[in-house]
């Protein structure tokens, strides 16, 4: 779908189209309500600022759609397909890095009670491992802010892919 097609959708269809980018109703409503967009850049700027800041409930809702980094998303939903594509771009790592990442995921999940979320696009597995370790030392408040920023980055990249 290109920008013109997105602008022409009825509100329900437009909401359904962007939901896989970030399933936060307030964000979806803001992105859909400010159409038509003059350019993809304007749409992406709206996506960056919409629903800022996220509530804890919105973060939890969005996190529920993301698998552990390094694990293949299951199912045939649009979100799962996007996640598989994003994680496939990471390539493979040696068994040591994969084992260390699995352990870092578990350590993070024990500390914060949810999956470690990071924008995978443009990152290597060793870089993601380093970030998982660093962020596990965050305070819960600091980590919520980092998770929110990662969700925004993921949503904007997904929306950009949808509109290109």
Automatic annotation (TrEMBL):
The protein's UniProt keywords, in alphabetical order, are: Decarboxylase, Lyase, Purine metabolism
Its Gene Ontology biological processes? Answer: purine nucleobase metabolic process; urate catabolic process
Q: Where is the Oxo-4-hydroxy-4-carboxy-5-ureidoimidazoline decarboxylase domain?
A: 7-160
Its EC top class is: lyase
What catalytic activity is recorded? 5-hydroxy-2-oxo-4-ureido-2,5-dihydro-1H-imidazole-5-carboxylate + H(+) = (S)-allantoin + CO2
Query: What top-level branch of life does the organism fall under?
Result: Bacteria
Q: What is its EC number?
A: 4.1.1.97
Q: Which InterPro entries match?
A: OHCU_decarboxylase, OHCU_decarboxylase-2, OHCU_decarboxylase_sf
Coiled-coil intervals, chain numbering = none
Annotated pathway: Purine metabolism; urate degradation; (S)-allantoin from urate: step 3/3
Molecular function GO terms recorded: 2-oxo-4-hydroxy-4-carboxy-5-ureidoimidazoline decarboxylase activity
In terms of PANTHER family, this protein maps to: 2-OXO-4-HYDROXY-4-CARBOXY-5-UREIDOIMIDAZOLINE DECARBOXYLASE-RELATED (PTHR43466:SF1)
What is the protein name for this chain?
Answer: 2-oxo-4-hydroxy-4-carboxy-5-ureidoimidazoline decarboxylase
Q: Which gene produces this protein?
A: uraD
């Amino acid at each position: 779908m290109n920008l013109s097609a997105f602008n022409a959708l009825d509100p329900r269809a437009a909401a359904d189209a962007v939901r896989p980018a970030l399933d936060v109703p307030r964000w979806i409503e803001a992105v859909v309500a400010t159409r038509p967009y003059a350019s993809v850049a304007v749409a992406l700027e709206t996506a960056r600022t919409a629903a800022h800041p996220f509530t804890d409930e919105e973060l939890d809702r969005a996190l529920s759609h993301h698998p552990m980094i390094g694990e293949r998303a299951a199912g045939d939903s649009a979100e799962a397909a996007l996640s598989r594509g994003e994680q496939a771009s990471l390539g493979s790592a040696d068994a040591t890095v994969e084992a260390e990442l699995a352990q870092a995921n578990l350590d993070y999940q024990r500390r914060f009670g949810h999956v470690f979320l990071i924008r995978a696009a443009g990152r290597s597995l060793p870089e993601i491992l380093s970030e998982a370790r660093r962020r596990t030392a965050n305070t819960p408040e600091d980590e919520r802010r980092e998770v929110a920023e990662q969700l925004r980055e993921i949503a904007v990249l997904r929306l950009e892919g949808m509109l290109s």
